[in-house]
Amino acid sequence: MKSILAAAVLVCAGAAGAPAWAQEMPDMPGMDHSKMAHDMAGMDMAGMDMSEPMTGAYGPYGMSREASGTSWQPDASPHEGLHLTEGPWRVMFHGLLNGVYDRQDGPRGDEKSFASGMLMGMAQRPVGEAGTLQLRAMLSPDPLMGPSGYPLLLATGETADGKTPLVDRQHPHDLFMELSASYSIKLSAADSVFVYAGLPGEPAFGPPAFMHRMSVMDSPEAPISHHWLDSTHISFGVVTGGVVHGDWKIEASAYNGREPDQHRYDIETGALDSTAVRLSWNPTANWALQASWANEIAPEQLEPGVDQRKVSASAIYTVPFGDHGWWSTTAAWGLRASQGTDLDAWVLESAVKPNPAWTVFSRAERVDNDELLAPPAGGAHRPVFTVGKVSLGAIHDWPLGDHLLFGLGGLYALDFVPGALKAAYGSTEPHGAMAFVRLKLR
Q1: What whole-number distance in Å separates Cα of residue 57 and Cα of residue 75?
Q2: Within its chain, how far is the Cα of 29 from the centroid?
Q3: What is the pTM of this model?
Q4: CATH class of 2-11+25-37+53-441
Q5: Is the pLDDT confidence value at 338 over 90?
Q6: Sign of CA dihedral 160, 165, 169, 171
Q7: Cα–Cα nearest to 114, from 412, 430, 435, 391
Q8: Where are the domains of the chain?
């Protein structure tokens, strides 16, 4: 492991001009891994052993299928990152840092400059003839935003001070987004079993977390459907077991269902009292489908006695676009049910990268939300409002070196609220915009 840490230092130092052995090895759409391995077999690249392509951590398939936690994306997804080997270990690093100026319009709007992004490191090695061990860590600069996060109209969830809920703001994610380990055993050419554990980690619920979905990962704006579909991606205590059979996967998780509290730099612990089950199917290289269910015990810190039931379904479609680009679209539905109230969220998002320089992204959402206004006196149910948001943005990247990109981007979002919320949000439809710069490892 000491040699792996030394290799990591060399990679970070060489991002603008990496040494020869720290070569980038992305899984691009349509890449023939077996041919690549054959063509590169026997090549001496100053210590790199690339005789075999990097395989998935949980089953006998290509690594490009894997997204956040144990979730799947289409096999045709490009897998960006810096790849290297050190002894039996295969190591990958991926990261991006956004500097964002955010302005949200209307009576509930605000403006703020902040940093967001992530840095992920992964190390994988074979164990025996059929086993695979993987270690993964992911960090976020989000706590630097401050406890109240950033302005985002119609977003709700979590708290800044442990006393009042965040409304029309996106909470910061914790410094430690994932610290996990997994072990899988290959049973045949198409079958495997695996176990995954994280503190924090991501249970088997929903599509890949939004910052890992290709259809919107280039946008610095969080979805207002976050707490319907993927807010469990930071759960402080997760154990997942699963079975892979070809293009199918069934898995179940026991996890700590509490949302992270307002202390963003610590590691929290709690009982693994919540349950999730997910069925995933990749029928072709271009599709990833999932359906999942979860029973969460007291997820909200400010409602300690209130449980939630969640259901989600999603479809992701990714194809090559042009000579060196891709196009990815996600459609998802999520349900939150609690105390006799069912709240739905619908999401459609898409991104296209026609060439290495440009990426254009968009998202449309429709959400039933009962947290936008303070609850009425007397313990009555909070009013439910159906709201919507559409956003469109783009980013242009310039290479600063072999493994580092500088990007300049922006987005515009239009919000839709019913008449009963006009007094709170203004007589005209509220809107927001973001301008951002980005550094990205590739």
Answers
A1: 14
A2: 20
A3: 0.87
A4: mainly beta
A5: yes
A6: positive
A7: 435
A8: 2-11+25-37+53-441
